[in-house]
Structures are given as structure tokens and as C-alpha cells.
Amino acid sequence: MSRVFTKAVGLAAVGAVAIATAQPSQAAAPTGSPVRAAAADRAYFVMTDVTREEFVIELTKSEEIEHARRLISGETTDRPHVMARIVPRPAPYNPRWSYHTNPESTEFFDFATEVCDATIPYVEEHLDEAGGAFLPGYRWCDWSSRLVREIPVR
Fold first, then answer.
1. What is the per-residue DSSP string for the chain?
2. 66-81 burial, b for 16+ CB within 10 Å, e for fewer?
3. What does each of the 154 residues of the chain score in pLDDT, given as a tens digit?
4. Whose CA is closest to 148, among 42, 49, 40?
5. Where along the chain do its domains lie?
6. How far apart are CA 25 and CA 33, in angstroms?
7. How far apart, in Å, are the Cα atoms of 135 and each of 18, 71, 102, 108, 144?
8. What pTM did the predictor assign?
């Protein structure tokens, strides 16, 4: 019986520590306190490729967001193509396609290996094959990809 009591006290202590160290939720933040907006650390861009189809990507890394904006403004032409891991399910911001890109894996490139090259519609048509011999590890690098515009976040 004392073992059960010791385990129960241990679990209660762990729970108390978890509650004491938990961060307050944004919903509980008092009015007027500085709460960072979720949209401030993400941006959406439309890319196209040789097919002229359009595909929306979400970026969450500040260095990639800034690079994307420099590409669109013409300030740079370095690393103009998009590389990312695809996620084989639709995203609300890109409803036309059955896949989207993982924003944490997105980067820009000049040159990449051929094994990850595919156009936007080709990925859609062969999505059930992705992750194997086609786009190993779900890594996609459309060699003809380029950003065309940023979508304002509302």
C-alpha cells in the first residue's frame, strides 16, 4: 500500500510542477498586453513553374520570408527556386492542390539534384508515389519554380 501511496504522491508532484511552470495561454492574456500575432511570423507566397500553374507556399522562417520578398522586388536573383518537403494533404491556403509544403523545411536554391525535380501538376498527378522513388523523403525541388507575388495576411 505504501508503494501505491508513494507513486500517487510522485505523480501529484509532477502535475503540480507542470501547472506551476506552464506558460499562460494567449486567450488568458489581459487586454492591452503585448501578445504576438500568429500572422506576424508567417507569410504566404504564390509560386509558378514552367507549366504556369500557381501554388501557394507558407513561409515561417524570417530569413526565408525576407529572401522571398527580395526575390519578388527584384532586389536579388540569387537562389530563386523553391525546395521543401511536401505534405500529401491539402492546406486551407492552397485548396486547389492535394498537397502543400512544410514551411519549416522550405528553402531557396540555385541548383539541386534531379531526383527532387517535378512540376506542380506532376506532383499532383503522382502524389500517391511520393516519398519513394519519386521525390524520396517527400523532398520537392521544382527547377523551374519562381515566386510571383506575396499574398497579404488578413
1. -HHHHHHHHHHHHHHHHHHHHPPPPGGGSPTTS----GGGG-EEEEEE-TT--EEEEEE--HHHHHHHHHHHHTS--SS-EEEEEEESS-BTTBTTSS-EE-GGG-EEES---GGG---HHHHHHTGGGEETTEEETTEEE-TT-EEEEEEPP-
2. ebbbebbeeeeeebeb
3. 444 433 333 434 334 333 333 333 333 333 433 333 344 589 999 999 999 999 999 999 999 999 999 999 999 999 989 999 999 999 999 999 999 999 999 998 877 778 899 999 999 999 999 999 999 999 999 899 999 999 988 7
4. 49
5. 42-151
6. 12
7. 41, 26, 14, 17, 16
8. 0.71
d(CA 49, CA 81): 9
Query: What grid cell was written down for 134?
Result: 519519386
Q: Which three cell numbers stand for residue 34?
A: 503585448
